[in-house]
Design a protein that fits this description.
The protein has 2 helices and 3 strands; from the N terminus they run βααββ. The protein is α+β, with helices and mostly antiparallel strands.
C-alpha cells in the first residue's frame, strides 16, 4: 500500500531525459558530476574526459539517468 505523503511532502525527484539537453549543458553536468569530491574510480586514475565519456555511454545505454531534486535544487546521475 502506498503511503500518502501529504501536501507538505517534498516533491519526488524528476528524471531529466539526457537527449533533450543541449550537448554543452550535458557535458558540463556530467563533468561536474565526475569531478565531485568523494567520487571513486578504483585503483586506476582516469582522466576527466574518459570519465565523462563513460558516464555519457551509461546514459546512452540506459544504465544511468539524470534526476533533478526540487527539494534540494540539485541534479544527480544515478544508476537505473
Amino acid at each position: 500500500m502506498k503511503e500518502d505523503m501529504g501536501p507538505d511532502a517534498p516533491p519526488a525527484p524528476v528524471e531529466v531525459p539526457h537527449r533533450e539537453l543541449a550537448p554543452e549543458t550535458l557535458r558540463r553536468l556530467v563533468e561536474e558530476f565526475v569531478t565531485r569530491d568523494g567520487t571513486d574510480y578504483g585503483w586506476t586514475e582516469a582522466t576527466v574526459e574518459a570519465r565523462v565519456r563513460d558516464v555519457v555511454r551509461q546514459l546512452d545505454r540506459g544504465e544511468a539517468r539524470i534526476v533533478f531534486d526540487a527539494a534540494t535544487a540539485s541534479v544527480n546521475i544515478v544508476p537505473r
